[in-house]
Amino acid sequence: MPEEYTPPASPTASFYDLSEDDEEYSTITHTSTGRGVKLLYTKSKVYVHPTPSAKDNIPGFIALMQQKPPTSVAADPSDPVNPSNLLLAWLPESAIGTAYDTYVKVDLLDTGTPPKQTYLVPPPPISSGSSPLGSYSFSIPVSQIYSLLVRPPSLGWWWGSIVINSRGGDSFPALFFHDSECASTIAQSKARTKKNFDPFGESGELFWGGDEVLRWLKRFVKVERSQVEKTVYLIDPSKDDLLSFGQRPVIDSTAGKNRDAAAANASGSGDFAAAVMDPFTKVIKSARWSLLEQFAKVTQFSRQTATNMLDNPNLPPQVRKLLKNPDVVSLQDDFDSARLYLARWAMGIAEQSERERAKIVWKREDMMEMEDSAVGEFEILDIEAGNIRGDGDRRRVVDLKEWNSWWNKSTGRLEITADEVKERIFHGGCEPAVRKEAWLFLLEVYPWDSTKDERAALMNSRRDEYVRLKGKWWDDVSRREGEGEAGEYWRDQKNRIEKDVHRTDRNIPIFAGEDTPHPDPDSQYSTIGTNVHLEQMKDMLLTYNEYNTTLGYVQGMSDLLAPIYAVFQDDAVAFWAFVGFMERMERNFLRDQSGMRAQLVTLDQLVQLMDPVLWKHLEKAESTNFFFFFRMILVWYKREFEWDDVLRLWEGLWTNYLSGQFHLFVALAVLERHRAVIMDHLQHFDEVLKYINELSGTIELNSTLIRAEALFYKFQRTIEASDRRHGFPSPGTARPMVRLTHRRTDSSTATTSSTTATANKGKAVDKGDGPEITDQLREMLSRDYVRVEKKPEDEEGKGKTPARE
Amino acid sequence: MSSRKKVLLKVIILGDSGVGKTSLMNQYVNKKFSASYKATIGADFLTKEVLVDDRLVTMQIWDTAGQERFQSLGVAFYRGADCCVLVYDVNNQKSFETLDSWRDEFLIQASPRDADSFPFVVIGNKIDVGDNKRLVPQKRAMAFCQSKGNLPYFETSAKEAINVEQAFEVIARHALAQEEAEEYTGDFGSSTIVDIGADSGDDGCAC
């Protein structure tokens, strides 16, 4: 049984009598009331920010206090302190009165050792928590704390903060740690640096006041950091949580006062109970695609029905409550960063609650409801326990043994189909050892039907060709001396390349070193030094200019080359793999940006088709330029994921297994993941951009890929359904399309016409008109990627110096 | 439509790639310098609250990709700017020479109501590198600023936090003045819906 909500222990009978001195150490008394609590730890200069204006900030103390256990409980000094006797409190400086000196003293104690003295202070007011922003000062028994939302100081948010959420569903006002004013934090930070030469806290981030609070709590209770949402720390999470969800703590549904208990029980008796109760990831891994797709659809559906997050019954009550608080609402309106902060924070909660929702999502009623809903367009697939199988195998990483088993031992010819290989890599990715070979096929250096000998011969000639291409600039002394227009252009290119190579993936070991003296004394980096791999990168990029004479080096290309080079660590091989990659990426770098525009427009249409409600919102927020996906599309999420994830993502995309433009489904998956937050909190282009930019480093790759795949299938079926309805194919009909823009057409007119077209789209689905499918959308069903058409007049930039590039 | 009562000052930082735009912004907002910033792709911004003559304002500082090729997308975030900061590297001649075209590009894309009075501030960055490497003499830079209508000019080091605070104080002041001036004349520019394809005409082809 989940842990029941228990009311807080009555504090009235449990204060230490200040005159009572039954401790083995001396007791400092301070107040006239004669009753008090032990002040165990406290930290000064912790503020409540009741309004956006800094002058309204209220300084105070956060404190951990111990009240006397109720007398009925036999006091055993060896017993650990019962968390219900501990109070976490915040008191404004102004309310502390004569105890101020005691607070200051305790603040400055060395928290590394147990206190030698007991400091008694007047009991804090016990707050019901019903008006958290009204009376500000509060205290809560630690046993009643459900979770802490901990946000360390970070870029753009210069005070760390903690929000306390109670088991009863209340949230207390955010406490901001003004570390630069807090004597104890400054001292602790200094001591830390001195002792360990490590200014960082336990989390590896910069030490700040909030770390101390977590440390206090960890002495008495179990503090579990959520694996999923790193800002959430659960206090004494229930056993059920840990049992049901393995090592992944989640929001306990009991936090919502058992509102879901009945539902959970109901679904628990269903056929798919086992899957439901399993960790989310396990469901995902073992489920059939049809099931996953269904899941994505249902999730989508339940989101759409919630008009906004505030009314979403699946949202933990503490969040709903906080967001509804008028003070918070006005804070959101006035203060952009506060809104972003809240948005991100709410997302953290939503992330957790989604797991919770997974329990009830599978109810039969939901399924029935869906059939009647807008998504009734799609056939509802049977979901049976028996269907959940088999997928785990597909998502297994391709290791060298498996890879080798596909090739004939003597001829080196592929013995299964290329599609089968692609399917495996698309779903499972490659083990590092496999990449050196597999990538050459994926990047079209080797044909799939080649033999070992053919490949060896091919590579020999490619090596020769690389040397020849490199020689074109290497041996061209006059160009390298910067003579004439060609020389000036070359030097400019070299400078650009050098500048970027020196700031590309320097955290990756092979690119980190600077111990080789720079070969060119005139270089801007001559004083810093370089390493052989950086030099190879520069040479390859310069050589690419000899191969593709029209493009020129553009920022982002070094980002694309680095992983390829790092995998092969052989310049000629890496070069040709890069050439293969650039075949599809070239359009991202065109001078007129037409390729980027085309993709952003396609993404725009994709969102219109797949999620018109979200699209409407983005339109209102003037964000349908989708510029906030620019970086992700330009360098294929290189800046959003960690290195290893980038390799895994790219090799999957290179397979074209489902679509030559699967990266746009990844974008859609990212967007859908954050849909609720965007809809509820982000109303302007700048907010959307900031939010999406800051997703960098937080996106979980595997679930994103699964979501993207599910979205692709849904997309495919939307189009099929539309075609069936319209008796497609009907080529050349005058039927108006959502956007009949071709890649290079001026889309300003298209935007206006599409606005009207899509305004009706949601209804159109119901009325049976069906969505209109543009050429660009249809193109996404193709497994070919989009290449830049080579036109003879595409001569710009060739060998000459463009005015500004 | 906007319920933002607070004064938001939008500042755009422009200049060639590698002159230190990201570093300047981070030094000013976060008081941090890192040698390992990556080339900026797309655009991003940081906000900072500052007091300008006892008025609390929020500066929204936009950092953009330095490669010209990407500027055609700039219209998406130039709109509504209150001040534009033009940055060059004092050790890089070319980055200085392109200042003028950065300014022109900005005026075209942001199309402020009164281009002549729109505030620009010029920053010569990387003065920490050392005099022997310096390629743009201060005199020359000042002459340029004078010729463009007495643009305020600062020489900074984002790395060593020299003059950064001072420069941004002036930037904030100019931006606030601009914002207040705009209030009288209403929103500037047309109410063009930002569209990624709307400006596909002749953007990059200034090249």
Would you give an account of this structure?
The complex is a heterodimer of chains A (805) and B (207). Residues 1-14, 18-33, 128-134, 243-316, 326-339, 348-390, 730-768 and 794-805 of chain A have low confidence and may be disordered. Chain A is elongated, with a radius of gyration of 31 Å. Chain A is α+β, with helices and mostly antiparallel strands and 805 residues long. In chain A, a hairpin with an 8-residue loop joins strand 8 (145-151) and strand 9. Chain A has 36 helices and twelve strands. In chain A, strands 1, 2, 3, 4, 5, 6, 7, 8, 9, 10, 11 and 12 form a twelve-stranded mixed sheet that branches. In chain A, helix 21 packs across helix 23 (532-547), helix 24 packs antiparallel against helix 25 and helix 26 crosses helix 30. Chain B is of the alpha/beta class. Chain B has a single domain (7-185), classed as Rossmann fold (3-Layer(aba) Sandwich), CATH 3.40.50. Chain B has a six-stranded mixed sheet, sandwiched between helices. In chain B, helix 5 (138-147) links the parallel strand 5 (120-125) and strand 6 (153-155). The longest helix of chain B is centred in the last third of the chain and has 22 residues, at 164-185. Chain B starts with 6 loop residues before the first strand and ends in a 22-residue tail after the last helix. The relative contact order of chain B is 0.19. Mean pLDDT of chain B is 84; it is low at 187-207. Chains A and B meet through helix 21, helix 26, helix 28, helix 32 and helix 34 of A and helix 1, strand 2 and strand 3 of B. Chain B: One of its GO terms (biological process) is regulation of vacuole fusion, non-autophagic. Chain B: Keywords: GTP-binding, Lipoprotein, Methylation, Nucleotide-binding, Prenylation. Chain B: InterPro entries: P-loop_NTPase, Small_GTP-bd, Small_GTPase.
